[in-house]
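Got a spare moment? Tell me how you read both lines of this record:
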Amino acid sequence: MMNHIKRLVTALVSLALAVSMAGAPAYAQINDKMVHVKDIAHVQGVTGNQLVGYGVVVGLQGTGDSTSVIFTSQTIQNILQSFGLSVSQNAVRTRDVAAVIVTATLPPFAHSGDNIDVTVSEMGDATSLQGGTLVLTELRAANNLVYATAQGPVSVGGFLAGSNGSGVAQNFTGAGRIPNGGIVARDMITPLENGQNGFNYVLTTPDFKTAANLASVLNGRFGAGTAFAMDAETVHVTLPAAYANNPVQFLADASDLRFTQDEVAKVVMNERTGTVVFGGDIKLAPCAIAHGDLTITITTQNQVVQPNPLANGQTAQQSNSQINATQHGKQLSFIAGAATLASVVRALNTLGVSPRDLIAIVQALRAAGSLQADLEIQ
């Protein structure tokens, strides 16, 4: 009986291992370029709307606008008049108030009563919004309609402190946020709610091959004629009969579909920060590179020159500057052709140059035709 149980357990274990090994290649063969529809495309028109408003932040400890900011004094006067207090503009002298611009983004499908985050930025000569509270402010869209109101304490994420000309600061205190400080007052109507017959998918990164692949996978899942690529960025979708009155269900079913996204060989460089990013299927043709480093050093020494006591002169300060320019020559380096991104990185690392020098080298490689990729300079 025990031998029979052991043989049964051994058979079950062997079967489980066989099933797991049979299923392993299927996962191993997944293409790294496979992406979900929801990750690289969005529905045209389903986007947020920007809101803006003018308001004041109160409760500041002497870090608000000065009396030279006329519109702040006028705003305080108008607020007091709305509460039945009549004061002259000359009587409004406080540095505990700052005029601000309030901005927010109204998400798609937003309904009245929803909360949104708002950003508060000073527009006068206030030094800090730390510890302030935004007074009730209307937020308007481009059509000048009020879509939300905002109010609440401002979080600046830093601090500013000082006395007698000395101070310490962390981050920027002239702008802050109010999490959930805005309340939506008007429903957001989107084109998806008005168009029941179809819509357009818009790719985050326009590409003809990616658009064609997206249309192909949609037709394969929902039937021929469901989608076609209009251009490199837009794929038009006609809702199948089963989804004629339910576009949300179609989007839910289509969002998890996987297809191949074509990658564009591209190099992005930021000369201000010295950042170089390589992406896509970049190829490097064989080339020879020589790059020299130029170093300029300026040294200044200040000396005090004593006057001649017989000439009734005055003590003066003399500056002596020395300028040295040194160029460290580099030998001509040969780089074999590289067919993958990793090979390109290893080949350029053999030069041993800094990121800022690499920017100049990449530009020269692109001009010479050795770097087979698009070049974007920010």
User: Anything to note?
Assistant: The mean pLDDT is 79.
